[in-house]
Design brief:
By secondary structure, the chain is of the alpha+beta class. The chain contains 3 helices and 4 strands.
Length: 89
């Protein structure tokens, strides 16, 4: 599978690591890398689509199997992608 964006180094916060199921994280990371931005409004999805082209930061939002929301953020320079809970931000 070809990613739409380079993810760089993938990191996860300790609280996200402790709370989220690894399969849910892996599936969301694949979705993020291929341009499926998850549970965002249309405006935020469009902003991510533009960010792919102009090199801006990209944020996606997903839910795990328990319904807990989490985010995946790829930095503008594409050097790192972080999986985190909203309260980690």
């Amino acid at each position: 599978m070809q990613f739409l964006i380079p993810l760089g180094r993938v990191c996860i916060t300790q609280s996200a690591f402790d709370r989220l199921h690894p399969e849910d994280v892996a599936k969301a990371l694949m979705r993020h890398g291929t341009g499926d931005w998850g549970d965002l409004c249309d405006e935020d999805k469009a902003a991510n689509d533009l960010a792919v082209l102009d090199g801006s930061r990209i944020l996606s939002a997903y839910k795990d199997r328990q319904g807990a929301g989490f985010w995946i953020i790829t930095e503008a320079d594409r050097s790192v992608t972080t999986i985190l809970l909203p309260e980690d931000y």
